[in-house]
Amino acid sequence: MEENNKKKVVLSGIRSTGNLHLGNYYGALSKFLRMQDDFDCRFFIADLHALTTNPDPKQLHESVKNILAEYLAAGLDPEKNILYVQSDIPEISEMYLLLNMHVGIGELMRTASFKDKARKALGITSDSDEIEKEIIGNQTSNQRVNAGLLTYPTLMAVDILIHHADYVPVGKDQEQHLELTRRFARRFNSFYKTDYFGEPVNFNFGGEALKVPGLDGSGKMGKSEGNCIYLIDDEKTLRKKVMRAVTDEGPKTPNQLVSQPVENLFTLMDIVSGKDVTDHYRQAYADCSIRYGDMKKQLAEDILKVTLPIRERILDIRSNDEYLSKVVRNGAERARAYAADTLKDVREIMGIRKI
Ligand code: TRP
After folding, report:
1. Which of 38, 200, 215, 262 makes the best surface tag, with the fewest CB within 10 Å?
2. How many CB atoms lie within 10 A of CB 348?
3. Nearest residue by C-alpha to atom 4 in ligand 1
4. What is the pLDDT of residues 27-48, one digit of tens each?
5. Which ligand 1 atom is at minimum distance from the Cα of 49?
6. Is the pTM of this model over 0.85?
7. Which residue's CA is minimally distant from atom 13 of ligand 1?
């Protein structure tokens, strides 16, 4: 325990929308797994963040349970780490209100993720800069951009700062949120003339974050892209998805440049198969003997080697409500102890004191 105090604090979360896919697994979870022995890790399920996109209540609840089971099945150890659900920590909501007093609506509106989501909510496809006007003009229609979406970065900063986290392992898409977190911490410190908050940084084991491509020939694997392989996919579903992955007509001349959809499959193969396997197919591509069907069969096989054992464990854990609730109760208790300390300090610093 004494040693634990010296470990750097790691904090990361995932929004509870849907299930975990291979992109989450190789991009984030595998990092968490490598960190759990050497750091004081706290991982949580961001159900309050999920509310920003107004999910169906039943689905939200299911999703929280699923992701918890998937975290555990993938190997996150509830003894080594603090695993909790964001909404179980009421201190987060209170500190979110307090921190919002120091956050500008202008800087929030300029955040890339906000602009994206606002555009989606309003059904705007162009990336015109007129988004601000659209948002204000649309406040009364059904397609409103809710205030929670705007203040998403405040809530995320609170998730991080309430733990005084040193490291926040996240993908590239979250860099801007992390930058805002540091900015809010500096602002709080300078306004109250304190050095209370440190500045958390991303963590990637010295390398670039791994980007897992999707099966649709475009960019990265993502829930909203509909191009995912899920850890929970059964054998048949998974094989079907891989066999249907987008390719091209095949190489016509030796050493022809590889098209994006095919390169994506090679990249997936690099991640899940041995190097020998990928080399074999790259060579076959180069000499035009490649058969995409064979390559896909191999790829599906190698993905299944990773996901099937996890799937078995997910199903097992998912059916054990008692265990799941024990894990989150324990996690909440431990996380709340840290959160309560920070909130107490923040209230004190801001001048909220008992009369
Ligand atoms: N915004 C993150 C995502 O969409 C999830 C998240 C919420 C998070 N709070 C966090 C990640 C705090 C790291 C730390 O992926």
Report:
1. 38
2. 11
3. 15
4. 899 999 999 999 999 999 999 9
5. 7
6. yes
7. 12
Note the helical H segments in 171-291: 175-191, 235-243, 260-272, 275-286
Distance 37 CA to ligand 1 centre (A): 22
State how far the Cα of 340 lies from the Cα of 43, in Å rounded to an integer: 17
User: In the structure, which protein residues have their CB atom closer than 6 angstroms to any atom of ligand 1?
Assistant: 11-15, 46, 49, 156, 159-160, 168, 170, 174, 177
Sign, Cα dihedral of 222, 224, 225, 230 = positive
Residue 152: phi, psi to the nearest 5?
-50, -45
DSSP character at residue 210: P
pLDDT, the chain, mean: 93
Cα(116) to ligand 1 centroid in Å equals 16
Nearest-CA residue for atom 6 of ligand 1: 13
Q: How would residue 2 be classed by pLDDT, with cut points 50, 70 and 90? A: very low
Q: What are phi and psi of 220, to 5 degrees?
A: -85, 160
CB within 8 Å of 68: residues ≥ 6 apart: 45, 83, 85, 324, 327, 328
